[in-house]
Amino acid sequence: MMEQTFEALPGKRLYECNPELNTECDKRICKYNINAVDHLCHGTQKKEFALKIGEVAAVKNYTPPV
Question: What is the mean pLDDT of the chain?
């Protein structure tokens, strides 16, 4: 199955992150984390943490409120 990607910088593609799978991220600036300090990030370099085509990440509490 194909993963969702986007161009972060010219010539640099990232995968759309699936926060449910991404165990390496603390989600402090995660777009999908309601309790994030800021909602800036939605990408990952790792294919194993990527959203598949047609998947949508859940917006919810991934961390306690700050």
Answer: 95
CA-wise closest residue to 41 among 20, 60, 27: 27
Look up tokens 């600036």; give the residue: 29
| C-alpha pair distances (Å), 31 with each of 1, 9, 11, 51, 61 | 24, 18, 23, 14, 11
Between CA 35 and CA 66 the distance in angstroms is 7
DSSP-based three-state secondary structure for 26: coil
pTM check: above 0.90: no
Which residues are 6's β-sheet partners? 14
57: enclosing H helix or E strand: none
pLDDT of residue 1: 66
